[in-house]
Every structure is written in C-alpha cells, then in structure tokens.
Recover the amino acids of this structure.
C-alpha cells in the first residue's frame, strides 16, 4: 500500500508548511566548511577513549570531526584527497575507506586508531584489473561479516562491483573478483549477497557473490522512480529498502523472502506534493523496533518506523535548510545514525555538518479492510484519511488495494476522525483511538450511491446533423465514463451517479469541445453538444497516430505527462499538458523515467489529413524540447508532408541552458508545401549519444484563415480593421461613432500578445504586430459602447 495525500491543492500547500517543521529531532550544533560543498558522511567511535567522530566527505578530502561533545564539534584533521563534489566513506573496524569520482587515487584508506592525534597512517589502493588501473570510484559498501569491500561505479570495465578482501590486511586490500555485467551506482552487501542498485536501469538486483569471480543473479525488482540509487536491509534480511534519486520520489520496501518473487510492500515520501528527491537510506534497530533514517536533499532527513515494512510511518524529521523545498539535488546529501551515543550526523552540501539528537518513538498504526455494505465485496481505491490537526504526519492517508486493505499511521497517540471516501460511494467517517506501538484494526463498510442512465447527442454545428462514431467522455477528478455515438450521433452511459462533471466530445476532423464542470443527476435533461469541423487533436482520445522507431525505453507514449526534473530542479519532462485544451493528455517520449533512454529514434506520425479544399491553411502545434547536451547527434525534428514532398518545420538541437518548456508554433502551409489530400505530420526524436532527449507534443490543429471567424456583436456604427490580411504586420483600426478605450490582442493559442489602455479615447489607431509570427489573432476592443471582437490575419 502506498502513503499518499489526497490530490487537492489544500493538501499540497499544507504539506510544504507542515514538514518544514521538525519532529522528534533537536539540533545540537553545526560545523561549516569554507572550501566547497560537502558530500556523504559516516561515523566512528574510538575503542580506546570512547570518543565519537563524524567522517565528512569534504570538497578537498576527508574531514574528521570530533562530536563527542555534540554541542561543540571540532575538526581534528583533514586527510587530503582530490578536489571533488563526490566523496563516500565507510568504515571497517578502525579503518575508513574513502572513494571519489575525481583524481586517480583509487581507494583511499585511513587508519583511525591514533585519533585524536593528527598523524594518521593512510594508503591508496590502485590495482590493475583487466588491464585498467583503478582510479575513480563512485560509492562503496563493506560486508563486515565477511571482511570484503565492494566498490561501485569505478573507471574499470562496465563500472559494476569490484570485490576485495580487507579482512587479512585492512590497509592492503586483495582483489577477489567483480560482478561487472552493467553499471552499479551503489549497493548493500550482507553475508555474500549483494543488493545492487542499477540506477540507469531503474532496478535493484540480488546477486549471490559467494564466489567473487562469478556472481549469480538470484532476483531483481524495478523501483518506482526507475532511478535506483541506494539500498539497505532490515535486521532479518527479509526486506530490502530502496531509494530513487529523482523528483517526487519514494523510500520503498520489498519482500525478498523469495528472491524469484520479490514484491513491493509499501512506499513513502518525506513531503508529498513537494516533488522532493530522496538520496540515501539506512536501517537502524532501536529497542526492538526498526527505523529508516533517510536523507532527502531539500527536505533534510527523516526517521520512519519500518518495524511493519508494509506500513511505514514517518515519526521524525529535521530540515537542514527550511527555506528551500521541492525538487533538486541540493543540501542534505547524507545522514549517519549509527554512532553508539545515538546522535545523528548529517551532511548538508551547502550548510555543512549537522549534529542532531533524535527521539525514536513507535508509530501509532491504523489498518483494516473496506467492503461494500450490500455485497460485502472488498473495495479498492478507497481513500482512507486520518484527520490530523497538528503538523505531525505525512503517513496518515492510504488507498485500499484490490483486497480492500489499507495501512497507515501517525506518530502521536490520541483520538482521531477517519474519513473513508470512494467515487460512487457515500463518504463516511469513523472515530478511532490510536496508541504508540499498537496496531488498531478498523474494518469499515461503504454504501454505493444510486445510479442512473445519462444520454445525449453530438451534432455537426454547420448542419445540425448527428455525428456518428464521435468520442464522448464524462469525467471529474476521480471518475471517467467513455462511450461512442451511434449512427445518429446519440449516446448513452448506462450507469452513472450524481456529481459535478465535465463533458467532452471529439472526432478526427472535428475540434474537441468540452464543458466546465456541471451538476449531472438522475433528473438532468439529455445532453446536447455541437462540434465544428477542423483538423484538430488535443490527444484526449486515440485518433490512431502512428508510433514507430527502433527503441523501447523512450518511445512515444500518449498519456498524462509525469514531471521529471534535473539536479537543478529544472523541468525535463512536462508535468502537465498545455493549457487551454480539453483533458490532460499529451504525447511524450520520457514519461516513465528519463535517464538511460535507448539510443536510436522514435517517430510520432499523424493520421493522413485532407487540405485540398483549404484556401489558406495554417498549422498550429505545441511542442516540448529537452536537449541539455551539447551534441549535434541528438535532435528533435518536426516535419510536414503532402505525400510527395516534405518540409522541415523545426530541427531542434542543444541551446543553453536546455531546460524543457512548452512552446507554441504556427506555420503558413502554402509557403512550405502545396496543400493536398495526403498531408501528414511527424515528430522524430533521435538519441545517438546515449543522453536524455525528451520531446512532447500537444494541441495540434489546422485553421483555414479564409474561413475562420469570430463572433462579433451587431452594432449600428462600423468598426473596420484593415488591411486584413496584413503583409507587413501593421493594421489600422477605424471606428465610426465609437471611442476606443482599450485593446487586447490574443493569438490563436489564447496567449496575450499585447494589452493596453488608451487614456484619451480615440476612433483611429495603428496596431503593429510585425514582430509576431504569421497566423490568426483576435482583437478585443473596449469602447464606450461595449466590447467589440475582431479577427485579423498576419500573412507576411
């Protein structure tokens, strides 16, 4: 089951406010660095004098900070290393092992025994493996039970896992083998089982590495964000936890009892609605319970009770930079909860070391099953929400699964109201008493709303004749009914229930029409809607555009776009389709993860359309481009064909800074090609570099400017706009008997081109659109006699 918040603006706005506040964690002190950012963090306790140290991946080396007095941290020594953004640290006994993606020192080893003295013994390990000298390493993990270090993302081979023995001589590792089928970004190892995070493939793989020379894959599972960053095991090795380093990501738990049948148990976010990025998680045992302590970049770190891994509940958090939230890979890189004193040390990339005192409390659990009050059948997709009045939880909502089960919780004990809601059912509430560490069962029933049939007709506006085979959709935020009209344009939806719904209809060759939400009940009159003939597609329905190409990951897909963001928080994939159209669907080629797209091309081609009867057709579309890499081998190419010749409308390549955005385009077709009865439109995305190339398309339509009209009021006095069309972009507005007091001009996408108030009302004025592209524009004139609308055409 998944921890989510209800999809409402209220919840999204409040989630940002609630979780900028800290819970069950207090700050003891901070330590700042003046030279560059800091990376990951680890810790060590001296067996000689009991002092505790934070091992911080500073920009120029390993910073060793005495945190024995949490209120007064003190740097003891900086072990120099290559200047770098990346630095990872793990310990084995009295030794620290340090990796970096910069320089060529391989694995750096520091003997910590002499601390707090500063003359520490160091070594580097740079073996030659299959003719390549080990120089750079992204991350590492140590199987302490076996005395083996695992090095990930190095410069060797396919950048998989290098395995070395450190038990015999911790300062002089001995190469034992590698698991090098594909890139491994990070991983966890216990008792010769590797949990490898294939970040670019989006999966966590279980590997038996008892024989380091020939590891055997025994299980694999894809993670929700398809960008698997790190993993960690629970105490009994039955559950693995993963993180996905993307915006709007999750900490996710999986049952691995049977490696050939791994399945998800639960997922949780630090701050639902904020698009925050998760980074690293660790599992720690406290007083018989288990907790995930996880860094979340712009959200700081969280403490989640994972004792019941199928019902994870956040019980603590600390935000190292409360003024920043949302997507992006800044601030809290790492967190280390294993120092024996119980303090937590966290590394904020910009703000330095944070020393914190946590209070680990048990979650208050609420679990149960929801069924239909008439049939006793389990109900899925029921929203179950514990009403909280204090800023204490992001785990208080869930949605029932196919067995009708839900599981959620809060950190603070008390009496709560619980709301049960599902589309088509009467919303109901219950009162529960929740206690820390206790599972409260609340099985509940919901009763369905009464149903009725809803009918209507779709007709051609120009002829009033019913349109056969037109698509009809009735929908709100939670429900959608789809049907198709019969030969006379009539439709019936046999089972609906009362609500406020939008109604939309469309067909290839007609412009989609949709209504604002309106009450539809059993007493509502039959619905009636007219459509205008037009080549138009906002992709609310499938009009049989053709998808082709030689790739799988990154192929075109018609769907509600899923937003992705780069490390700076800039949009890569659209998070929403364009405005001013019906529905929320577009075509995109990066909707299920953006990293590691296949090399090759994916093509999106329209149905053939007939423009032979058009006098002066204009083509309009909205497109998205994300090309962040400076290479001329990756392109988005948009073309128009008349069946004989093809014109290139756009060839998009890298333009700094390369962030994705929707852009509206329009073209006068006759200046490119002769309009025919065999027209087609194609968007081709080509990835030859192996980078992340994203395209998207929405709101495609063609308007004949000779026939396009705008409603204008009938008035005795005349208002003329000339010349129309204009060849140079300049128009004269001339009125007889009217004073013009203001003017607004919109393009055909509904975007405001210009707006001005005329202080001294005039009857004649000049409009200059010479800096605008060709196309149709709409003028709204505010006069002393009312509003007058005019259509003008720019035809340079």
């Amino acid at each position: 089951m998944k921890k989510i918040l209800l999809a409402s603006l209220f919840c999204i706005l409040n989630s940002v406010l609630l979780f900028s506040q800290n819970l069950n964690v207090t700050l003891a002190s901070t330590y700042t660095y003046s030279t560059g950012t800091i990376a990951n963090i680890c810790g060590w306790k001296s067996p000689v004098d009991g002092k505790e140290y934070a091992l911080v991946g500073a920009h120029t080396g390993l910073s060793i900070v005495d945190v024995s007095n949490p209120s007064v941290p003190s740097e003891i020594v900086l072990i120099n290393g290559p200047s770098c953004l990346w630095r990872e640290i793990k310990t084995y006994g009295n030794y620290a092992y340090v990796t970096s993606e910069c320089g060529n020192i391989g694995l750096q080893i520091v003997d910590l025994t002499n601390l707090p003295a500063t003359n520490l013994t160091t070594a580097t390990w740079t073996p030659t493996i299959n003719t390549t000298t080990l120089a750079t390493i992204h991350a590492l993990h140590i199987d302490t039970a076996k005395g083996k270090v695992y090095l990930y993302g190095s410069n060797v081979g396919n950048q998989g896992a290098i395995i070395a023995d450190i038990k015999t001589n911790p300062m002089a590792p001995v190469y034992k083998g590698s698991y090098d089928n594909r890139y491994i970004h990070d991983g966890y190892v216990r008792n010769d089982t590797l949990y490898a995070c294939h970040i670019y493939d989006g999966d966590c793989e279980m590997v038996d590495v008892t024989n380091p020379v020939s590891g055997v894959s025994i299980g694999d599972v894809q993670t929700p964000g398809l960008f698997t960053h790190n993993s960690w095991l629970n105490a009994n090795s039955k559950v693995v936890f993963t993180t996905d380093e993307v915006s709007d990501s999750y900490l996710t738990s999986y049952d691995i009892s049977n490696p050939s049948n791994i399945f998800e148990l639960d997922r949780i976010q630090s701050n639902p609605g904020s698009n925050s990025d998760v980074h690293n998680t660790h599992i720690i045992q406290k007083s018989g319970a288990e907790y995930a302590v996880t860094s979340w970049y712009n959200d700081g770190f969280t403490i989640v009770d994972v004792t019941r891994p199928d019902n994870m509940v956040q019980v603590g958090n600390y935000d190292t930079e409360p003024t920043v939230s949302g997507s992006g890979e800044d601030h809290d890189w790492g967190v280390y909860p294993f120092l024996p004193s119980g303090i937590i040390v966290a590394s904020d990339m910009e703000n330095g070391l944070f020393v914190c005192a946590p209070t680990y409390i048990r979650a208050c659990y609420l679990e149960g099953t929801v069924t239909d009050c008439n049939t006793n059948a389990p109900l899925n997709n029921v929203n179950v929400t514990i009403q909280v009045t204090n800023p204490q939880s992001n785990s208080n909502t869930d949605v029932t699964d196919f067995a009708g089960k839900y599981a959620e919780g809060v950190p603070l004990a008390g009496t709560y109201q619980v709301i049960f809601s599902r589309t088509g059912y009467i919303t109901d509430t219950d009162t529960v008493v929740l206690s820390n560490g206790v599972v409260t069962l609340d099985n509940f029933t919901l009763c369905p709303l009464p149903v009725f049939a809803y009918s209507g007709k779709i007709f051609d506006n120009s002829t009033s004749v019913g349109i056969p085979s037109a698509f009809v959709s009735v929908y709100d935020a939670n429900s959608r009914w789809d049907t198709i009209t019969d030969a006379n344009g009539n439709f019936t939806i046999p089972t609906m229930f009362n609500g406020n719904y939008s109604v939309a209809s469309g067909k290839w060759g007609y412009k989609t029409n949709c209504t604002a939400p309106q009450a539809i009940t059993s007493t509502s009159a039959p619905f009636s809607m007219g459509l205008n003939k037009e080549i138009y597609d906002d992709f609310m329905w499938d009009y049989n555009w053709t998808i082709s190409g030689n790739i799988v990951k990154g192929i075109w897909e018609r769907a509600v776009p899923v937003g992705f963001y780069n490390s700076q928080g800039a949009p890569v994939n659209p998070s929403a389709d364009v405005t001013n159209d019906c529905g929320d669907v577009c075509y995109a080629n990066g909707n299920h993860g953006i990293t590691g797209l296949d090399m090759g091309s994916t093509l999106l081609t329209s149905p053939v359309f007939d423009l032979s009867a058009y006098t002066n057709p204009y083509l309009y579309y909205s497109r998205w481009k994300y090309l962040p890499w400076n290479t001329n081998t990756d392109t988005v190419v948009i073309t128009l064909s008349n069946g004989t010749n093809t014109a290139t409308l756009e060839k998009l390549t890298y333009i700094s800074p390369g962030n994705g955005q929707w852009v509206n385009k329009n073209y006068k077709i006759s200046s490119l090609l002769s309009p025919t009865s065999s027209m087609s439109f194609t968007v081709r995305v080509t990835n030859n570099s192996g980078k992340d190339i994203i395209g998207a398309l929405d709101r495609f339509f063609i308007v004949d400017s000779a026939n396009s009209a705008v409603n204008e009021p009938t008035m005795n006095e005349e208002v003329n706009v000339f010349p129309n069309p204009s060849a140079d972009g300049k128009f004269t507005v001339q009125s007889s008997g009217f004073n013009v007091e203001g003017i607004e001009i919109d393009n055909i996408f509904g975007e405001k081109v210009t707006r001005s108030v005329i202080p001294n009302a005039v009857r004649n004025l000049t409009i200059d659109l010479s800096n605008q592209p060709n196309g149709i524009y709409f003028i709204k004139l505010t006069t002393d006699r009312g509003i007058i609308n005019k259509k003008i055409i720019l035809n340079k």
User: Anything to note?
Assistant: Confidence is low (pLDDT under 50) at residues 1-20, 709-717. The radius of gyration is 31 Å. The longest helix spans residues 9-18. The helical segments are 9-18.
